[in-house]
Amino acid sequence: MKCGVVAIVLGLVGCQQRGVEPTANAAATASDVRAEQTNDGAPSMVSDSIAVDASTSLDAGPSTAVGQSDHELSTTHVLSWIWEKPHYKAVQLGWFRAGSRIRYTEPDARPKSGQGSCWVPVEPAGYVCVGRDGTTTDLQNESVKAGAAYPAKSEPLPFAYGMSYGASLYARVPTDKEQHDTEQDIEGWRKQVVAMHAKMPEDRRPPPFAMEIGETPSFLRDYVQSPPIVPWAVGKGALKAGYANSETRLAFVAAFESDHRTFYLTSENFLVPADRIKPAKPSTFHGVELSREAEDGVHFPIVWARLPSDKVPIQIFSYDGDKVEKTDVILKQKGWAQIDPHEINIKGTKY
Q1: Which of 103, 167, 286, 316 could crosslink 329 through cysteines, CB 3.0-4.6 Å?
Q2: How many CA atoms lie within 13 Å of 35's alpha carbon, on the beta-carbon side?
Q3: Given a cut of 80, is residue 14 above it in pLDDT?
Q4: Could you tell me if 13 and 313 are in contact, meaning their C-beta atoms sit under 8 angstroms apart?
């Protein structure tokens, strides 16, 4: 008698080799931000797609200590593109962030003042235009140094994340008076947040903060304006950079305290009060470790239960080569089972 386990799939299932549970824009290096016209000189700006997918980027290597190098360049913008060929009609191969470094494959090709073409070849592939779109060989630029201080992590989630309850975006650390002038009843708002979180089920309650609180970034001390990497969004000397509407997702690179209030530094070098953000709780979900073809262990194909078992139950049956019998096992949400690569049709039902 030959026995096995098969599953009737009544809902949506998917396969994943290994990693974390997918989330919307989990690898975004920038946030969807809607800015407003401010009274302090900041220009109006609306961007519905600043966020980009890190899976499309080239691996430019980890950021290193900032210094001058004749063979490296960076960018002063939140991102700059790498092109397949030395012109703007070429395919975009990927991008690199403010503060990251990429190397020239031909250092002598770097354009000098007064010369023609701005294009230089870079490693591992493609071209960038030096002097355009933020690309620069000046590794001492303040925006470059600020970006290098908080590089994206080489992890499935490169930043900390959170969702706005409706939050002012600041271009520098605001004084206590500026906060109250801008946001009005801050103390009352904090009480609302505490009460709101207290009503949530414990398993859905957000963590206190999106990330560990550290020291104030050196480039933000003494109420100095944050080095701009989204320069078209912030006026020189402006206090506000805009407004993150309710349910806007934001990415954070640092958290610190000022005047007894916690702030996040976003991936665009904007500042946002932590109490105006619902911190994201990173998923602990992990995929299945697959074995090599000739080794014992788990192999494709496998099925995943994507939906709650109480809504779409995935029943496990036993099969002895002749008949199918129901077991007491139901594949729970995020559960998985290895299956036979061939379907079995018994009395018109596919298993």
Answers
A1: 316
A2: 28
A3: no
A4: no
pLDDT digits (tens, 9 = 90+) for 63-79: 333 444 568 999 999 99
Tell me, rounded to whole angstroms, the distance of Cα 272 from its chain centroid. 17
Place of tokens 């870079």: 122
Residues 6+ apart with CB under 8 A from 50: 30, 31, 32, 33, 78, 230, 268
Q: Which residue bears the tokens 């020189």?
A: 236
pLDDT at position 70, please?
A: 66
The phi, psi pair for 276, rounded to 5°, reads -100, 10
Q: How far apart are CA 331 and CA 343, in angstroms?
A: 18
Comparing CA positions, the residue from 131, 126, 148 lying closest to residue 139 is 148
Q: pTM, whole model, 2 decimals?
A: 0.68
- Note the pLDDT of residue 69: 53
Length of the chain: 351
Distances (CA, A) of 130 to 73, 74, 76: 8, 9, 11
Cβ(220)–Cβ(269) under 8 Å? no
- The residue-averaged pLDDT of 295-321 equals 86
- How far is residue 87's CA from residue 117's CA, in Å, rounded to a whole number? 10
Higher local confidence (pLDDT), 68 or 288: 288
Tell me which residue has tokens 């900390």. 160
CA 84 to chain centre: 25
Share of the chain above pLDDT 70, in %: 77
